[in-house]
Amino acid sequence: MNKFAFIVLMLFSYTLYAGEFTGLTPDSRVTLLSSLSATIVSVRSERQDSASGFVVSPDGLVLTVSTLTRNRHSVQVRFADGRTFAADVIAKDHETESALLRIQSPESHTFSFLALGDSSAVKIGSHATSAGNPLDSILADHQVAVSSGTITSIYDVQSADADSRYLGPALETDAAINSGSEGGALLNDAEQVIGMVCLAVDRTRMRGTAVPINRIKTAYEKFLVANNIDASTALALQDGTMKSSDRAIQALVKIHLPDSTETVSGVVIDEAGHVLTSGTFALGQQVDVERAAGRIARATVLRHSESMDLSLLKLDSAEENSCIPLKETASIVPGIRITILGRCALCEMPTINTGIVSAVGRLGGLTAQSNARLTANTAGGAVLNRRGELIGIVSHTKSMCELCAQNAGVSFFTPAGLIRSWIDELTSVAAVSVQRPGEKR
Amino acid sequence: MNFNSRLIIQIGLSFLFALGPLRFISANEEVSHDNATKEWDADAPLVKLIETTSKAFVFIGDGSGVVISEDGYVLTNYHVAGSAESWTIRLGGEEQTRVCDVVGKDATCDLCLLKIRGIDHAPCMKLGSSATLESGQEVLALGDPFKLGEKRGGPAASIGIVSAVHRNQGKYTDAIQTDCAINPGNSGGPLINLSGELIGLTGQINSRYGKNNTGIAFAIPIDQIKLALPRLLQRSTVGAMHQSPLQAAVASEVRSRPICNYGQESSRK
């Protein structure tokens, strides 16, 4: 068991990185971020609200969203220090909903700029920072606004609305993205741009997204190369994401709710193939469970607890089952850093959120609360502590969504200790019913 | 709120389960791997910080508040406590409720100062300084989002960063912007630096979807509150003119200049 926990920990060492804060010492990111403010601009055309943009070359090339530059050849860019310039729209790309600008400035003028990273190397669960001009922070207050979060998932955005028409591969993040943020930079910890923040939101997820920078690099390759900007893109985006061969990931399943298009997550907790999930199922019901790499397995519902919002399923087949065991003795107190794994309808790969335990004894005393910004399809997902131990199962997402939509940072999970007692109770009842015939003899 | 009714029956049970794991952990620690212990230790400072600061947290009305002096002065938002003269409150570390009275309030600054009746050694939070805050700095927010902890237990903690400083949004001027999870019910709750000092009161959010937080929340900076405190204190009843520890502290720290002038400017929004 310990050996397995260690393996899980190793697998998730990079995901835990997002939660790897240096105790309570001053944050080194402060210095990192302070240098950002000279590279982020607000972009404005006359009639519209402003968006964000970021400088990518010393002579003033700026990447931004194309929504503001529609039918325009020139826009205004402004830095947090108040410097304001006119900028020419030199290229647009509708696929990525982006535009390339060149700031009109004297030739001698040099700008601070951001290096473009490699979005194919981005892993789900790694740390990300959004930087931009949400709610006109640059125009109103001379402030670039930053927010810290995690790459929570990578998938193709499949529905568009009025804010953004972008459809395609996207990096999903729980770092703050709000109106005015679009065109801003999503950065890795090396302060390289890994995505352009956009307002595209897939209806099934309702989470902030960014267009992978490699797509944008490809769109403007000749301009970037002509300006000595490294436009190289590595392999396809998916290659950088989490390996589906990871054993712990294989313990995660996706379950289609009966009579619904919604999906929830689930976790295989032992080699016998017991699966914990959240959602309402009828006892004895057969459900299709989607395992890693799209394999479908049948499972039977053994037990459902409405108060815990949990269901226990058992996989029918006897194949070898990857699992994450429940760690019922792990401490759950406010302040513990947690990583939450789930599956979503859109994505092959798991979703990863990070946060802390916010409070315990919630919803009548059963559940723990966390500040992770979860979505409904993370219900039944695995809550891991820093050691990679399974300390709970995401539950009560329905109450969460009723209360606080999908982004509020108020989410719940049922502690492993409670779940273990519930399961043990079930097995002891089964054992009694088996023994009875023997007693009669 | 149907989930409430169906869960309420479990109160007794859960207590048992909540305590069980805690009791075992120390025994487990001794045999655990060195690396694993290190991982665990990394959480300890934040766990301790939340434990300590939660005691000075105040559940009040539809929002939150914080005790800022040993003699029981409580800070919260005007929009939380300004509508009444006295409130029944509960401290984050206590089960029993207490009564406190509004001492002074200021709608423009969205501040309300109250005093808990008959308390001498209240757990309180030290006032820090918001002048040295930098964007990117990690901060802790305590609050009671959606009033989930109103009846029992401590406040909900959330960790985030300072997104920007000196922000003028909505009713607030010179506010701290943070990506901590702040939601209805968090209003008046403390924003705390990692040294455990009060650096602001969270009171306003901005959202892409409806009423709930999408990573943009605003806090009144503590330096602005320090300027407002003498005025809030002056409005205390005439009889109580002895100088309390808080008044003494404020007198020594705060110069007598007009407060929240920019607050009035902001009313144009």
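The two ends of chain A are 39 Å apart (CA to CA).
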